[in-house]
Write a structure and sequence with these properties.
- The protein has 327 residues and is mainly alpha-helical.
- It has 13 helices and five strands.
- α9 packs antiparallel against α12.
- The two termini are 32 Å apart.
- It binds tryptophanyl-5'AMP.
């Protein structure tokens, strides 16, 4: 049995990339009876400006989404990151062994700050260290994430090894788990970049809450190429991405999909894909709405999770404080 942990930011819409990259793989591992931790990383979200009322709503929305996707609070510690202050405490200690150079090399940091000059916050720079603290507090072995978070999990490994070497065996060394298909869903409007909540155009992503008309419109306008045949080819990035999404929502293999669209064109393929996406998302959306209708219960679940998480996190912090000589 492995200890599995992951987390998502409550920064507005969650999209199908988040779902297939992290939520679904987590739920699959949860059901194999492991010790699990999943939380809403509100302190990561504030590394870019957030409107407080919106942030509060988004935390509830993220929680409802996890539950709707099958996260079971009986098997998983489900909580809000800021409610377990040991996360930020450990982040500070890890800050004191992390190197500026290794943080400067983080590709996500480079992407997010390109052209922003001096307005970049210290929080954004330090974000991967808080993520390392998130992971290391709970003796995590497996971190299911999308491809874009691999480098951050590797930093957590490096920091764990560095700390253990300097102060003695303290942290478990975590491993990222990245699925083969769907670990990097690309933008519908630009298949060169990953699907992202912070994309400039809404046409970039399918939100988990998009209705049938919106899905239809977005899929219809998704970028493909002029070849017209339905054949998976990594070089045909737009189509390859759509086939991957098709495969994820229907469970069909790429071969089966190619077979059923022999002699047919993009129009039919896209119409069917929109229908399958809608069929896939509808039940999830209904469950999300049901969970959202009882905010008191959502808060209750988060509070219970935080109480249990605090106990585990405090155990680890006692050891850490002791090792570094402040206890
Ligand atoms: P975040 O909130 O940006 O994304 C949440 C999860 O969704 C995955 N993901 C994708 N997967 C496939 N295709 C995409 N287009 C796509 N876009 C996003 C991400 O890889 C991620 O798994 N720093 C993290 C949150 C975090 C965390 C942690 C994760 C904080 N502490 C500890 C794991 C463990 C983040 O910002 O993810």
């Amino acid at each position: 049995m492995s200890k599995v942990l992951t987390a998502l930011q409550p920064s507005g819409v969650l999209h199908i990339g988040n779902y297939f990259g992290a939520i679904e793989p987590f739920v699959k591992l949860q059901d194999s009876g492991n010790t699990n931790v999943l939380f809403v990383v509100d302190y990561h979200a504030i590394t870019v400006p957030q409107e407080p009322e919106m942030l509060r709503k988004n935390i509830m929305f993220a929680t409802a989404t996890y539950l709707a996707a099958g996260v079971d609070p009986k098997k998983t510690l489900l909580f809000q990151q800021s409610h377990v202050p040991q996360h930020t405490e450990l982040a500070w200690i890890l800050n004191c062994i992390a190197h500026m150079g290794e943080l400067e090399r983080m590709t996500q940091y480079k992407d997010k700050t390109r052209g922003k000059g001096e307005a970049v916050t210290v929080g954004l720079f330090d974000y991967p260290v808080l993520m390392a603290a998130d992971i290391l507090l709970y003796e995590t072995e497996i971190v299911p994430v999308g491809e874009d978070q691999k480098q951050h999990v590797e930093l957590a490994r490096d920091l764990a090894e560095r700390f253990n070497k300097r102060f003695g065996e303290t942290f478990t060394i975590p491993k990222p788990q990245i699925r083969k298909e769907g670990a990097r869903i690309m933008g519908l409007d630009d298949p060169e970049i990953k699907m992202s909540k912070s994309a400039k155009s809404e046409k970039n992503f399918i939100s988990l809450m998009d209705d049938d008309k919106t899905i239809e419109k977005k899929i219809k306008s998704a970028v493909t190429d002029s070849q017209g045949t339905i054949k998976y080819d990594e070089k045909r990035k737009g189509l390859a991405n759509l086939i991957t999404i098709y495969s994820l929502v229907t469970g069909q293999t790429n071969n089966q999909i190619e077979e059923s669209y022999k002699g047919k064109g993009y129009k039919e393929f896209k119409e069917d894909l929109a229908k399958h996406l809608n069929d896939f998302l509808k039940p999830l959306q209904n469950k999300i709405k049901t969970y959202l209708s009882d905010e008191t219960e959502l808060k209750n679940i988060l509070d219970q999770g935080a109480k249990k998480a605090q106990i585990l996190a405090e155990q680890k912090m006692k050891d850490v404080r002791n090792k570094i000589g402040v206890y």
